[in-house]
Amino acid sequence: MESGVFILILGVTLSVLAIIVLIALGRLPSELANLRRSCERTKTTLLAAERLGGIGTWSIDLQTREIFWSKRVFDIHRRDPAKGAPAMDAAISYYHPSDREMVQRSVDRALARGDDYEFSARIICDDGEEKRVVSRGMCQTNVTGTVIAVFGIFIETGTATSADGASDNAPATGDHISSQQE
Fold first, then answer.
1. Beta bridge partners of 61
2. Which of 1, 23, 36, 66 has the CA that lies 20 to 30 A from 132?
3. Cα separation of 120 and 101, whole Å?
4. Which CATH architecture has domain 54-172?
5. Tens digit of each residue's pLDDT (9 = 90 or more) over 115-150
6. pLDDT tier at 175 (50, 70, 90 boundaries)?
7. Beta strand pairing call for 147-159 and 55-61
8. Which residues, other chains included, contact 172 with Cβ-Cβ below 8 Å and sequence gap of 6+?
9. Nearest 5°: phi and psi at 50?
10. Contact 115/107 with Cβ under 8 angstroms?
């Protein structure tokens, strides 16, 4: 008799679980639609912020070595988006030769320790124009503290040389980015 009760309880439990799964599956399409709308809203907001603020975004996935540049970063560098984002070494070669060592140190320190960074430097665009930019980067680490990605922004602050020939040393503006990732 005890095995019959067990089978009855098991059958009721499986029936309840099946009902719960069916209810959840019924909600799945609407939840997916909500997620799609939320992603689109976030993307639209980010694109508006880039355009209105003159900011370009970029990221590096260190596991895949994939680099992402937003349209604005391509515009700042005057690089044809059809070429895709450059590899990391090629991206650093955009910086003025006198600034590359400082840029490389900042990036190396960030990758080694997970530190955020900010610097102002000159870049040489694909069309040869020299511009001053501010770059800010924020590292994402995994649970062991290993840096797995870097996210950042570029802000074009002007041409590297003003009309009178003086260097445009516009200071970086804004607060330092701090990561809240754990």
1. 66, 149
2. 66
3. 13
4. 2-Layer Sandwich (3.30)
5. 999 999 999 999 999 999 999 999 999 999 899 999
6. very low
7. antiparallel
8. 118, 119, 120, 134, 136, 157
9. -60, -50
10. no
